[in-house]
Design goal:
By secondary structure, this protein is of the alpha+beta class. The protein contains five helices and four strands. Strands 1-2-4-3 form a four-stranded antiparallel sheet.
């Protein structure tokens, strides 16, 4: 899906879109949950040092009007358990995300295919 050139973005939207696409391209600490949707986890302390923590991501999602929820979550990182936050975009809200990052649709389609294969026992 080509980017629309007839839409004029504000500077804030343009910045948020760049940050969103950069985050999605990193593919670090991201996954899909069958009953929930798309998840991004960040260590509560470490991520804020380099500006990609959940508070920063939340601000970008707010700017782009992408609905999400944030939940506290502990993840195993190496041999340690680390407290962090997970930003979740529910399956039915993913079109609001792909509006700003159309190429992410391929990852969504792949996740659906993997979950369908797992459900059918393949």
């Amino acid at each position: 899906m080509p980017y629309r050139v007839d839409v004029v973005l504000t500077q804030e939207e343009r910045t948020a879109q760049r940050k969103l696409i950069g985050t999605l391209n990193m593919r670090n600490a991201m996954w899909f949950e069958p009953d929930v949707g798309f998840c991004i986890w960040r260590d509560q302390r470490d991520s804020q040092a380099w500006g990609a923590g959940i508070p920063e991501l939340s601000a970008h999602f707010d700017t782009l009007a992408i609905p999400y929820v944030v939940r506290p979550e502990v993840q195993a990182v190496g041999k340690r358990q680390k407290a962090g936050l997970t930003l979740v975009v529910r399956w039915e809200e993913l079109p609001s995300l792909t509006r700003w990052a159309p190429s992410f649709q391929k990852q969504i389609d792949n996740a659906h295919a993997e979950m369908d294969a797992a459900a059918s026992g393949s």
